[in-house]
UniProtKB/TrEMBL annotation:
One of its GO terms (molecular function) is transcription cis-regulatory region binding. It comes from the Bacteria. SUPFAM superfamilies: Homeodomain-like. The lineage of its organism: Bacteria, Pseudomonadati, Pseudomonadota, Betaproteobacteria, Burkholderiales. It comes from Pseudorhodoferax soli. This is AraC-like DNA-binding protein. GO terms for cellular component: cytosol. Residues 240-338 form the HTH araC/xylS-type domain. Keywords: DNA-binding, Transcription, Transcription regulation.
Length: 341
């Protein structure tokens, strides 16, 4: 069996995100199970709180919801966000000179279309903030709509300037999906939970030039929003560096925290402290990598469970079985059956 490639260990997405994004479709009376199946997501996974789906599955679900509901916020708000709204905002943005101009133009565009929350750019004491203020009582659907608008808006901004915009903090309305703890990884910034949504950054970044063009926009739109899901993660973070290092050892003995510290020229104490500052932990990084790799391998019916266990460095299939169940809430055989049908 070939070694696991880097492309097969992409971060997966918590099932809580799936449960939240279909809330609008449920309210609209759509057949949610059918939408999930068309996206390659077994409906049974929604009953397993620890389950994960791939980026491709989540992007496919966004596509299905968008076209079923004719709504770019998937039925989560009181009125649909018309198809073509995102493209129109992008076309305005690529015609701007700076990030500040593009943000102001894009948010002005959406203020004309959105009834449930108001997006604005504020600048004060050297800090710029893209803030979403709710106009209606914040329920679970509106919370998730604002959260997604903030995240996809951040992805668009990063694409416009062709770099990750460093954030100082992220404001998010609390949702059931927060139990998964994905927000710090998605935004690479500490989340603050309340009623509003948005993100804050140093105001000097507003002067960054827009480097994208109408020509590059065509390819971007063909892949969005899938291209935004995790494209601009901070690959320089210590947690990501450790994940890449551990990935090279899949299929064999995993380095210990002490081994990794030696390779990074850090004492174990410094490594633990630096990871705590990022909201991460060594064991969680290792387990997340193994979980994501296992989920990928389980989609290949030609691989037996003992083969997968061996490829992931487990000496016995039973040990892999227990570990996978602790990560996802399902035994690997049951997960595979639900995934492949």
């Amino acid at each position: 069996m070939p070694p696991l490639s880097a492309g097969n260990t992409r971060q997966t997405i918590a099932i809580g995100q799936v449960q939240q994004i279909v809330l609008g479709a449920r309210r609209a009376g759509r057949d949610v199970d059918a939408l999930l199946q068309r996206a390659g997501i077994p409906p049974e996974l929604l009953g397993s709180p620890l389950s994960r789906v791939s980026q491709a599955q989540y992007a496919a679900l966004i596509f299905e919801l968008r076209h079923s509901l004719r709504d770019e916020l998937w039925g989560l708000c009181s009125r649909p966000l018309p198809l073509g709204s995102f493209e129109a905002a992008c076309r305005q943005a690529v015609g701007c000179r700076t990030l500040g101009e593009a943000l102001r133009a894009g948010l002005r565009h959406y203020r004309l279309l959105l009834a449930d929350f108001t997006p604005r750019l504020h600048v004060h004491d050297g800090v710029a903030s893209m803030a979403l203020a709710p106009r209606l009582p914040v329920d679970e659907r509106l919370s998730y709509a604002m959260r997604c608008f903030a995240f996809l808006g951040y992805g668009l901004v990063c694409w416009l300037v062709a770099r990750r915009l460093p954030l100082l903090a992220v404001d998010l309305p609390r949702t059931e999906a927060d139990r998964t703890g994905d927000a710090p990884q998605l935004f690479q910034a500490p989340p603050h939970y309340g009623l509003r949504a948005g993100w804050r950054f140093e105001a000097r970044w507003l002067a960054l030039p827009i480097v994208q063009t109408p020509e590059s926009l065509a390819g971007f739109l063909a892949q969005a929003p899938a291209s935004l899901l995790l494209k601009y993660r901070d690959d320089s973070s210590l947690a990501e560096r450790i994940r890449r290092l551990l990935r090279r050892h899949l299929g064999g003995p995993m380095p210990s925290l002490e081994d990794v510290g030696a390779q990074l020229a850090m004492t174990p104490q410094t490594l633990r402290r630096r990871l705590r500052e990022e909201g991460a932990g060594f064991r969680a990084i290792r387990d997340d990598l193994l979980r994501d790799a296992a989920i990928d391998y389980l989609t290949h019916p030609g691989l037996t469970l003992p083969e997968i266990a061996g490829q992931l460095g487990f000496s016995e299939a039973s040990t892999f079985h227990r570990a996978f169940k602790s990560w996802t809430g399902l035994a690997p055989g049951a997960y595979r059956q639900e995934r492949l049908g």
